[in-house]
Write a structure and sequence with these properties.
The complex is a heterodimer. Chain A is an all-alpha fold. Chain A contains 13 helices and 2 strands. In chain A, strands 1-2 form a two-stranded antiparallel sheet. Chain B is α+β, with helices and mostly antiparallel strands. Classes of the chains: A mainly alpha, B alpha+beta. Chain A: InterPro entries: Aromatic_CoA_ox/epox, Ferritin-like, Ferritin-like_SF, PaaA, PaaA_PaaC.
Chain lengths: ~325, ~100
Amino acid sequence: MDLDTVKERAGPRQFSPDDDMPREYREAATRMIQFHANSEIMGAYLERPFIREAPSLDRKLAYSAKTQDELGHGQLLYRAAESLGIKTREQMLNELANGEGKFLNCFHYPMESWVETPMIAFFVDGAAMRRQATLKRTSWEPYAHAMDKVVFEEGFHIKHGESILKELATGSKKEQEMVQDAFETWWPRIIQFFGPTDDDSTHHDFSAEVGLKQMTNDELRQSFLNQYLPKAEKYGLEIPDTPTIEQDEDGNYRVAEDELDWEEFFQIAKNEYDPGRGQIDSRKRAHDAVEWVRETLDEYETTASGHAPQAAD
Amino acid sequence: MIWEVFRQEGAGKYHTHCGNVHAPDREMALMFAQIQHGRRKPTHSIWVTPQQEIGEVNEDGATFGGTTDKGYRWATQYNITAAAEEVADSESEQADAEKERGRR
């Protein structure tokens, strides 16, 4: 299929592995889905310590279930990316380990304390959910199918995150102060979640033309602020002064983006931010530690007796 | 040889199991599947796979979802109004799934 036909036909769930897609499409889709998959994995590693640090059994169980879900999302997405024929799952996992694989800005910052957890589990996941709900209409069918399952499960994650926020925000004065501090630290990063304004976005135009992306960064940021800024206020969180956010007469939010630290953002985007390198390396160590399991499974797969599947390639 | 048949109603939808056919090879299985399963109901694509390639585990061999209360896994168990439309949608999908599980 040539690129003009792709652009003409671009629509929700329009293209599947049966279609002969041009390289440009397959590369753009791989970049996007690999980024998404990497982010699921890195998010899970970021939250993993809080299974142990959870303050109650309920929270511990819920965090354990959530982390398990996120790793599952990563696996689903690597499968969807693999179906484009550009990279194998193993290649993508190796790229993540050696620091080439890119992932969401927020997951480059380590979390120190339980009070930070709703920043990820409510605000960042809430932002991700806004984007993911639109991706159910992406043009790469395996990606849309992965989104069906991801979005089905995410409802629990976000309500769980909000439930933690509610508990802290209605807790002791000390807890309220601590959650406000965490919010101030995380807020600018959360705003940067949707990247810079469209003018500076490198990949959007093409991805939108071929139906991979459904909404621009600006539209998503706007819809996130519309929905989640009032939530922050509802829980008594004070919105930090930086960046300045103003509402115009139509009720739309305007973010003074030049007040945000884009140098740090682009350092992160290149995997060159030190704390982020720490996150990447610690995941690599965990991944390497179970190398023997993968090796054993691979060995078993190639030597196991029994009939070879007829369709194996 | 028996081939299991999966029919997809339209582009972008899921291939769902709809039955099986007897056929000596894949080519004929696809032909028979078209005639038996793709003739009346809307069909965009059909998959066939040899029956012996399908692995199965059922309720006799597994306790799906575990044996303990895993209420914490469900959006419906958190006493909070959904923060956004897509969260509410996800929650109602979960409520449907829970209801279907409960009915059995």
